[in-house]
Write a structure and sequence with these properties.
alpha+beta
Length: about 210
């Protein structure tokens, strides 16, 4: 009887030890994901604000040079497929493959040309990662940063990123409480529901051309 109880306790102890090792391993993997993702975001954004400061005179007068820098430095960090899917919401499901690709291309160009110029106010800003956390879904991380522009108050900038083929890419950004996807999805959904998806895509293509 005693031997039987001892064997049961031993088996239970081994199971608990295995579960503890599994939890520890999983936590370690997630912690590693968070560190790598955060470093990627901080490194890229820090590089961009430094370039903005270094080339301010050129970028202030040459929008093409500024746009080229944004395409070269920032666009590789953005997961436009996921961002476009989330932004179009219900209309993504009914869009044809051609419409989806047109929307991705037009949305990308619109973002570059709409926001590149406003980035100059962040030239030389300090970027710091703070309390980034893993998503419940493996391969997804919320990278939290604080952006402190020169002579201005700090601003929170959170990046929802995912691992795409070994590369961490952002599919949503929230800056100072303004969520990029939520903001565009509200407007795009209203327009697509009223005027049609084709009309929306055509308008965005024209605005980005």
């Amino acid at each position: 009887m005693i031997n039987s109880i001892a064997k049961q306790l031993m088996a239970h102890t081994k199971k608990m030890a295995f579960l503890l090792m599994l939890v520890t391993f999983t936590t370690s993997v997630w912690a590693s994901d968070v560190d790598v993702a955060e470093k990627k975001v901080v490194d890229v954004t820090s590089s961009v604000v430094n370039l903005l400061e270094k080339n301010e005179a050129q970028y202030s007068t040459d929008i093409n040079a500024l746009n080229a820098m944004v395409r070269r430095e920032i666009l590789p960090l953005i997961d436009f497929d996921a961002m476009s899917k989330l932004t179009l919401g219900q209309h993504w499901r009914t869009a044809t493959p051609q419409q989806r690709q047109r929307f991705i291309n037009a949305f990308r160009e619109m973002l570059v040309k709409s926001y590149a110029k406003s980035m100059l106010k962040y030239k030389g800003a300090n970027i710091k990662g703070v309390n980034s956390v893993p998503n419940s879904k493996p391969g997804y991380v919320l990278v939290r940063t604080v952006v402190t522009p020169k002579g201005a108050a700090p601003i929170k900038a959170d990046y929802s990123v995912r691992n795409v083929g070994g590369v961490w890419k952002a599919y949503n950004v929230e800056i100072a409480g303004i969520n990029l996807i939520t903001n565009f999805r509200t407007n795009f959904t209203r327009e697509a529901s009223t005027s049609g998806l084709e009309s929306l895509i055509t308008r965005i293509e024209k605005s980005g051309s």
